[in-house]
Each structure stands twice: as C-alpha cells, then as structure tokens.
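G.,

No rush on this.
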Amino acid sequence: MSPLIEVRNLAKEFRSFKRREGVLGAVQNLFVREYVTIRAVDGVSFTIQQGEMVGYIGANGAGKSTTLKMLTGILVPTSGSIISNGHVPYRDRRRYTRHIGVVFGQRTQLWWDIAVVESFKLLKEIYEISDVDYRRRLGRFSEILNIGEYLHTPVRKLSLGERMRCDLAASLLHNPPLLFLDEPTIGLDVVAKERIREFLKEVNRAERTTVLLTTHDLSDIEELSRRILIIDKGRLLFDGDLAEMKKRLARYNQVKFFLKDRSQIPRLAEVTSNGLALERVDELTYIMRFDRDEHSSAEVIRTLVNRLEVRDLLIEEEPIEEIVKRIYLSGEVG
C-alpha cells in the first residue's frame, strides 16, 4: 500500500543577517552585510501510512516545526521532495489544504471577535460542507470535547484550553484524512490535555484520520503514538516503534520505595554504599535508579528490604524523557 505521506531528503535553509555589535558595527552594517546560512532541516526522509498516529519530537530549534510547515505547504523546501495525500503541498496548496487539518498551539484559525459557532459556519462555507455533515460533526465534537457551552462565546473570551478544543473541532469539520498538530497541549492543565488526547484517539479510531503530532510533552507521545520520529539539529535521529525504542535503549530501571517512618531516613546511606543512585521525592518517598547491566532488580530490592523498613515499592521503567535526552546528547540511537 502506498504511503499517505512520503518525504525524501527534505532540507530547508534560511539566510540570516549577522549583526555586528556596537556603534561602529551598526555603521558597518549599513554598508557591508554579512549573512549566515542556517540549515533548519537537513536531509530528512520518512513515510507515514494512512491511519497512523506519529509523534515528531525534538528540542527547541531542532527543525520539527519547520518540517511541519513544509508538510502543510506554508514553506517551500530548499531541496528534497514531499508527496502528501497525492499532492506536492507548496505547489498544490489551494487543493491540498481542503484535505488537511492543522492546529498550531500558539495560533488560532478562529476569528477573534466573533462567536465560535460563527467561525464554524464560515468554515462550513469555505469547505463546502453539507448541512447534514456539518450538524452531525459539530454535534459529535461538541459532545466529545464538551464545547457546547462555548459555541456562542467570542473566541477572545475563551481560556487557552477552551480555545484549543474549539480549534481542534474547527480543523476536523471538513473530515480531512490528514491532521497536523504543532504543540496542541502546550500550556494546558491536566484535565484539558486528557480531553484532547481522548478526542484524538476517537477521531483516529472512528475516521482513520492520520495524525502527525509535534510536542515537548512526552506524555502526549506515550498516550497517543506507537511510532515516533526524533529530530535534532535538523537531522532525523530515530524513526521507529516507541516500545521498541524503550526496549532497546532503556539502560536504567528504577525502584520507587516508601519508607515506613522517619526513623528509617538515617539508614538511607546504607543502601547507596554500593554505588546505587538515590533521588528524594519527598520525606518518605525515594527513587533508586540503577544500570540494568550492573545490577538486577532482584538485587536492588533485596538490598532495600534487608536494610530498610519500607511500606511499599514499585519497579518502574526508565522515563522516556531520560531516553530521549540521552539520544540528543549522543546524537545516535545505537
């Protein structure tokens, strides 16, 4: 089966004016300008099949938002190629945008001073959505996202979480096969994040909507995506299954334990004498992290229960944040 998105050797360069410092530098800038070329995306290749939910992660400036802007047709690549849903995004932009949904976390596609429902009606006309489909989708989105009470409120009066839910509904009113999300949960509280995650799962399950998600919140990735792409300094470092990455690259496990009482605190030094690292969560809760090649879980637990009185303990995998951080630092995945 042909992929829905095919990206080959994609690159994007920007020319930036290098300003000199000081008064003399400012005068020189008037007559002689020095430019530097920044390669924001550098030879990225990947394919995405219909119905996939893919997480695209990277640090600030890694190139993920630039990639997304090329995929949506906002930016023209310097080199390489993109075929998305049968279109070259920047070349066929007018036709292409009728078949995609886009949400940028810090920007809205809704009209600022009019009621949310009026924005939806305008989008209905722009995308030529039938009355039946419009009512059905709006009713379903209102129910899942709980936006019914905001429909007659001007967008400028909505909180960030309320606006994000309305933006998601707006991006899917025309039932696009492709949805691009750039930091959709940034700045949201736990409840708002959970509503958006559940909504995306439902849309993907019911409509087989393909989703490409960029985010700094790795809990979004773990909740929504089986596959992840990791980009750093414009280059793709990893493309594969999230569970496989954790299995292959997780070097550490950790045991979270809860002391019986304060009298056990002075004895904590006894369990770190063999080089095991200890992290304090609160007065009676601690995490012991250990290299799986050097210590077994059974050995660590035996050390803890033999030297301390504990109420309970949990064995946990290394957090995904730590694995990704290590990939960034090493620049490799093997």
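When you get to it, here's the other one too:
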Amino acid sequence: MKAVIRNSMLAAALGLVACGGGGTPQERVDRNISKLVQACSDKQGDYSGAAGLVAYNGSDRARKYKSLASAEGEDRSILNKTCYTISKLLDGGKSYTLVKFEEEAESEGTWYVQHMKFPNGQEAALAFLEIDGTMALGDID
C-alpha cells in the first residue's frame, strides 16, 4: 500500500513539474526564462515557441495582462516584439546570469521580477505575472 501511495505522489509531483506548476514562484519564473531563451533563439525568426509564455499586452483591455499571447493575429506581433528584445539582450548567444529576484504588488497582481545580466554587460529586469497557472512574461525593463 505504501508503495502505491508513494508512486501516486511521485506521479503527481512529476505532472506538476512537467506542466510548470511546481516549485516556488522564482523557480517557475526561472524555468520560463529558460524556455523563452530557447524559443527566442530561433534563427529563422519563428517565435511561436514563446506562445503561452508571454502575457497579452495588446489593445484589447479585457485581455491585457489577463491572458496569454498566442501565435495568431495581433498576438503574433507581441511574441515577435518580446523575442526581438530578448534576442538583442542575448546578443546572439544563450547565456545569462540571474542576479536578483523580487516580488512587487501592483494593480494587475503580483509581479515576479527577475533581474538578469548578460555577457555583453547589459542588464534587464524581466517581470512576470501568474496567468492561468503560468508565469507569463509581461514586461522587460
């Protein structure tokens, strides 16, 4: 009986990690940064891999910072702009250093901010909101 319960708990934990739901906010943000770096490094400029990782921040006020950007329509331009900015920061590479993590309460909800440093000396703060169980990138400063 103990083995069955232990295996069920392990399966549930692995399921949470697989869908990005497990861990602290910082761990979840760091995993999505890694996924975004991978998606935004596409040399062909197809940034559809970033869909579901970026917060919608377009003209539709009902969706702004409340839903995830897809790879369709206006949402595609949001992904392209976000990935272009990330690509410029990465300067052709994929390396970065995580510097400091903080949480900030704002009108949209809690922003989870990961400060980063890049090999070319640039620094940036990537700000995430939790949307539909996903840490979605909402802003880059």
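The two ends are 52 Å apart (CA to CA). The helical segments are 2-18, 25-40, 73-90.

Enjoy the weekend,
O.
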